[in-house]
Amino acid sequence: MTVTELVALFDVSRDTIRRDLDLLEQRGMLVRTHGGAIDNSHLVQVDTTIGLRMDAHVEAKRRIALHAAKLVRNSETLILNGGSTTCYFAAALGERRNLTVVTNNLRLPAVTPDSCVRAIHILGGLYWGISQVTIGPISFPSVAGISADTAVLGVTGT
After folding, report:
1. What is d(CA 120, CA 143) in angstroms, rounded to the nearest whole number?
2. Cα(39)–Cα(22) distance, rounded to whole angstroms?
3. What angle do CA 83, 157, 27 make, to 5 degrees?
């Protein structure tokens, strides 16, 4: 629901609605969005380890990875996020050369062919073990001045 809808429904101020939504989010009962909130019971809950996700739908992930890797040109800078499909994508980059990879995915250095990378930058943050990534507010001093050519983002689905 939007803040405007909730104001009309409960006949209270926008500030009251915003405070209440913030409190409900802190309690894990919803997720705040720009201008409102959504019920988090409808969101995908990530509760499987990256190891289990790496072993699920392997052939489909390999096909996605191979097609996506063909879109990358030599000497590009890539941003890759966490996830199993992005690991398969990184592994499929073997024909490319001189790539710079910026990632929060701690599995990527091990699966990315050495022959294709110039550098891999690992973003800092809080370590999230179930997915083997770093998350949360971070600073980018080690990658200041890097601009990306391509971003490959994995998503969780069921």
Report:
1. 10
2. 13
3. 90
